[in-house]
Write a structure and sequence with these properties.
The complex is a heterodimer of chains A (about 250) and B (about 190).
Chain A lengths: L6 H18 L26 E2 L36 E9 L10 E6 L24 E5 L5 E7 L4 E3 L5 E3 L2 E6 L8 E6 L10 H4 L4 H5 L4 E2 L10 E4 L2 E2 L15
Parallel strand pairs in A: 2-11, 2-12
Antiparallel strand pairs in A: 2-5, 3-4, 3-8, 6-7, 8-9, 10-11
Chain B lengths: L42 E8 L9 E6 L24 E5 L5 E6 L11 E8 L6 E6 L9 H6 L9 E2 L3 E3 L2 E2 L9 E2 L7
Parallel strand pairs in B: 1-8, 1-9
Antiparallel strand pairs in B: 1-4, 2-3, 2-5, 5-6, 7-8
Classes of the chains: A alpha+beta (about 250), B mainly beta (about 190).
Bound molecules: fe (ii) ion (FE2).
Chain lengths: ~250, ~190
């Protein structure tokens, strides 16, 4: 196994890219695909510019999900097993809207995450933190008519990975989202406010614009917090602008 | 129908990589079987996802979204609880240890007179945001459409190839034969 580089080396690369970006005067809103501090991206990013396409046919529509697909209980990750999972119980809620601010109604949201100790239920997760027999870390729900999703879960822990020596991911929840057309499909990660690992994490820093990165950070919301039960976090999601008009989507069942 | 919409007024939330640990969460029973194997007309849509060295990517996720054989856009729910009868047009397949994904499905018809294609989305560990592309049915003498024409000499990467099981569509993220990936109005490249 090759010797891993230090955090200091990764930090220097992150800083150099951030400096170049600042000097450029351009505004970027999405992660760079070519971002060498995240070592696994080196051979996995396209080198050619993406080709501009006007969406047509099937691309103007999105798959439909409904009550048949999702059990409402799947939105509560703390009741999937017999006992209570370990850790800090939280609620995460927000709205999914398109680029015009219109709610994405009755659409699928999927999440997955590590447990409170930073361990995934995944055979490739070698982190020696304990598995929690009462926590799978998998949730699904449909947005309501206002585009709102809501999950009850456990605050995930940070976890180590082998991008470089002493690499740790900030605590995060993976989110998978669909819009009203195919071109809005996205997968991302939601973070928690004030995480000291933000500056050190090449995946978070692959979004080189500080304002854009902050769009992935949830807000602590005391109005969502329930006395003696759980803490509340709010996180809204904006998909890229929809192309079809709302009228054309009305037969969405 | 072509796209028309007002310019976005809100900035889109950034994407992030799917990471290495999605296998316990995103796959579901029947995810890659849009129709039951053995259904009349069923074919295998399959291919290998490769990196810049040509090595197979074992932790990618490929999704397809397609019209039915008549060119109608499916508006039915139930992809995650397949009943064996309802064609929902949506499929999801992880890649295996050889980098291969597979779908059992029907050939799509063209929508609104366009050439038939599968809409394809690619996710992988190491890939910082999703990629979109199209997998067209073999042209069989049909004229290339506006997109294929505008792509030029790399257009072949958007065409499926017929083989003994159905249709083959390899995806190359980088390097020789790099697949043409698409960006749509309202997207920003980075
Ligand atoms: Fe993760």
């Amino acid at each position: 196994m090759p010797e891993l580089e230090t955090q200091r080396q990764i930090d220097a690369e992150i800083a150099a890219t951030a400096h170049d970006y600042e000097q450029s005067g351009a505004e970027e809103t999405q992660p760079r695909l070519d971002y060498a501090p995240y070592r696994s991206s080196i051979l996995r990013h396209p080198t050619k510019d993406p080709h501009h396409a006007d969406p047509e046919g099937i691309e103007l529509w999105a798959p439909c999900f409904g009550e048949r697909d999702i059990d409402p209980l799947e939105a509560d990750l703390t009741i999937q097993r017999r006992g209570e999972p370990q850790g800090e119980k939280i609620v995460v809620t927000g709205r999914v809207v398109d680029g015009q601010g219109r709610p994405v109604r009755r659409q699928l949201v999927e999440i997955w995450q590590a447990n409170a100790g930073g361990r995934y239920i995944h055979k490739r997760d070698q982190h020696p933190a304990p598995i929690d027999p009462n926590f799978t870390g998998l949730g699904r729900c449909l947005t309501d008519d206002d585009g709102t999703y809501r999950f009850t879960t456990i605050k995930p822990g940070p976890y180590p990975w082998r991008n470089h020596l002493n690499a740790w991911r900030p605590a995060h929840i993976h989110f998978s989202l669909f819009g009203t057309d195919f071109t809005q499909r996205m997968i991302t990660q939601m973070y928690f406010p004030g995480d000291p690992l933000f500056a050190l994490d090449p995946i978070y820093q692959s979004i080189v614009d500080p304002k854009a990165r902050e769009r992935l950070v949830s807000t602590y919301d005391h109005d969502l917090t329930q006395p003696e039960v759980l803490m509340g976090y709010r996180w809204d999601i904006v998909l890229t602008g929809a192309h079809a008009t709302p009228l054309e989507q009305e037969d969405h069942q | 129908m072509t796209a028309t919409s007002p310019a976005p007024t809100l900035t889109a939330t950034p994407g992030q990589t799917i990471g290495p640990f999605f296998h316990f969460a995103l796959p579901f029973d029947g995810d890659r079987d849009l129709v039951a194997p053995g259904t009349p007309g069923a074919l295998l849509l399959h291919g290998t996802v490769r990196d810049g060295d040509g090595a197979p990517i074992q932790d990618a996720l490929v999704e397809i979204w397609q019209a039915d054989p008549s060119g109608a856009v499916p508006r039915r729910t139930g992809s995650m609880r397949r009943d064996g009868f309802t064609f929902t047009g949506f499929g999801r397949s992880t890649t295996d240890i050889s980098g291969r994904y597979t779908f059992t499905t029907l050939a799509p018809g063209g929508v609104d007179g366009g050439l038939p294609f599968f809409g394809v989305t690619v996710f992988a560990r190491g890939l910082l945001n999703r990629l979109f592309t199209r997998a067209y049915l073999p042209l069989d003498g049909a004229e290339p459409d506006a997109l294929l024409t505008s792509v030029g000499e790399r257009a072949g990467t958007l065409l499926t190839e017929r083989d003994e099981t159905g249709l083959r569509f390899d995806i190359r993220l980088q390097g020789e034969g790099e697949t043409v990936f698409l960006t749509y109005p309202g997207h920003s490249a980075s």
